[in-house]
Specification:
The protein is of the alpha+beta class and 219 residues long. The chain is 34% helix and 26% strand. The protein has 2 domains: 130 residues, no CATH class; 55 residues, Orthogonal Bundle (Arc Repressor Mutant, subunit A), CATH 1.10.10. Strand 11 and strand 12 form a beta hairpin.
């Protein structure tokens, strides 16, 4: 079972949860956001961590009885003291003890899925998470007051990616969503700004591990 929610939030990109009823592999696409994740194993053990952004797809294996959930944060949200560029395609586990997670210098209660929005808001109030408003403006095209080089450094430091990489991952996700709706590949390529259908195919192979034909066949 897998569920996603997309709240109207300036901080949260999406919330997700998954329950494993059998052992199998799952394809995880490239993503420009970073992900706070939480797991309750079949024996009740609690784990938590943060997964960095990635510019390639990967496979993960589920364990029967495991319940996982998490929250993807908007690209401009930063965790002071944790460099996203060092977590590119990787993850870091947090200390979990007696129902509390250590984040930075704070011990906060282990959240359930339904608590994720208020959990993130609490982290912002504790200054465990921060808005990088300058990067938020840059990612929407407002580059006023920054040289090209300074802008590139600032975006990469905050997001772990270049703006071009962020745009590539976002565009591939948009095309993937259109294909799931049955939109023909050639139309997807045009609507999402790809040079041609071959460009779309290469992008989906890298970021989603599938060709347009495979996406259409599996929907």
């Amino acid at each position: 079972m897998y569920e996603e929610r997309h709240p109207d939030s300036p901080v949260v990109q999406c919330m997700w949860q998954a329950r494993a009823t059998r052992e199998e592999r799952y394809l995880v696409p490239a993503v420009e956001h970073w992900d706070l994740w939480f797991t309750r194993a079949a024996d009740g053990e609690l784990r938590a961590g943060i997964a960095g952004p990635s510019i390639g797809h990967r496979w993960i294996r589920s364990t029967v009885g495991e319940h996982s959930w998490g929250v993807q944060l908007k690209t401009h949200i930063v965790l002071p003291g944790v460099r996203k560029d060092l977590l590119l395609g990787a993850e870091q586990q947090f200390v979990v003890e007696d129902g509390f997670i250590t984040l930075g210098m704070q011990a906060v209660p282990f959240p359930e899925f339904e608590d994720l929005e208020s959990f993130v808001q609490g982290l912002l109030e504790l200054d465990v998470l921060r808005h990088d408003h300058a990067v938020q403006r840059m990612l929407t095209g407002d580059d006023a007051g920054y040289s090209t080089r300074r802008r590139q450094r600032r975006i990469r430091a905050a997001t772990g990616l270049t703006r071009k990489q962020i745009e590539q991952v976002s565009r591939a996700r948009e095309a993937y969503a259109l294909l799931l709706q049955g939109v023909p590949p050639i139309e997807c390529a045009e609507r999402c700004g790809f040079a041609d259908q071959a460009h779309l195919t290469r992008s989906l192979r890298v970021f989603h591990g599938q060709t347009p034909a495979q996406v259409l066949a599996g929907r």
